Fold each of these.
Amino acid sequence: MKNKEDSKKIASAIKKARGEHPELTEALDLLTKLTEISFEEISPNSENISWEKLDEGFPVIDKRLVPKDISPLHKRFNEIVEILIAEDKNGASDIVAFFEKEKLFKKLIEGVLMGQYNFPKEFTHSKPITLFAAGEALLPIIDGIKKSDPPPKNLHLWEESYCPICGAMPNISAIEGDENRLFLYCSRCAQTWNFRRLVCTHCGEDDQQKLQYFHAEDNEIHRVYVCDTCKHYLKSVDKREKTTVIPRLEDVATIALDIIAQREGYKRETIDFVGLILMDYETNK
Ligand SMILES: [Zn+2]
Ligand SMILES: [Zn+2]
């Protein structure tokens, strides 16, 4: 079961965000619904975990960690799709029906887990929603891996811009501690890891002439770092001023910065929760 303390912490943080951002009520309602789906973590067979992969730049997750019985993941996928497209019942049931065959669903989650999935030609529904829901469906496995005592030595040496546990890209970064170190937060599983400062997480650009940042006039804690080489951006929070960061909530609460960055022609790296909200914003504009 998801840790009760964590759920409480998230619920109270969402409540606070509601007060501060009445304009985000809809997005926060959706986030609340997603965080309320409980799940049992799935402990991996320890023989199938290779922490050494981290030393070679590969995330820990791989196909061998998918359990034989994937029905709990399948159920979770269906629930998430239904929450995300609640306003269009047919849209949701079309996606659920498409992946009803276990074999097809297994291919989908394995593809998402390996960072590469090719939709069948006949799939004509929302690809971003499907990919996001499949990523969320993997959380019971990901949490199981995290509980299997990752050796801190291997984790601390991780230098890539994607998550060492699940391979997803970060959705937010934070500057922390007295040494002003930069940490990235995984958009899928909230894992955090240390990363070099002043380097683009998308393309690795480190020429300072190509990297810039901006922030809202009245808020210097939240910034957007943009790269003019690849035209991607990543938001950042100065955690020296704030005690805790719940990455997905922080991401939602700073959506105004995404809108500005995208207007300026910069792209967001991830199809994640806020990525989906922004797509809605685009179509409703
Ligand atoms: Zn992750
Ligand atoms: Zn770049």
Note: DSSP finds eleven helices and seven strands in the chain.
Amino acid sequence: MGDCPVAVVSACLLGRCCRYDGGHKLVPGLRRRLEAAGYHILAVCPEAEAGLPIPRPPMDLHLAPDGSVQCLDADGHDHAPLLLDWCEREVACLSQNPPALFVLKSKSPSCGLAQQPPGLFAAAVRQAFPSARFTDDPALPELP
Ligand code: SF4
């Protein structure tokens, strides 16, 4: 990857079929635009890489009475410990070459940036890489 700045991108936005329903959310041209702007792309799917199956039951974030965030499926199983453990290892790995840009899928319990509470991966990388740029707008209006 040389000296190229790294862009971490939610893998489903690049066409990987890693969503809970087995589908993707391909944004045509996203890869091409990032590469043209000089980024080395790192496609990441927190849920699949943490070991959750594809497809998998949909999950939602909930604030527990003790202030912790739970990531519950319809059966009430909390996947937050698994995801947070993966996030910690991924942040350590990314720290070796800190990313300049994160392009993350909106409205996801892992990748969502704007929601409350934010996605678990989104929150972890925002905290770990405060000087990176973060966007959930894959149209990337600010790129050339
Ligand atoms: S965890 Fe993120 S990358 Fe994986 S499918 Fe969900 S939104 Fe896409």
Note: The radius of gyration is 15 Å.
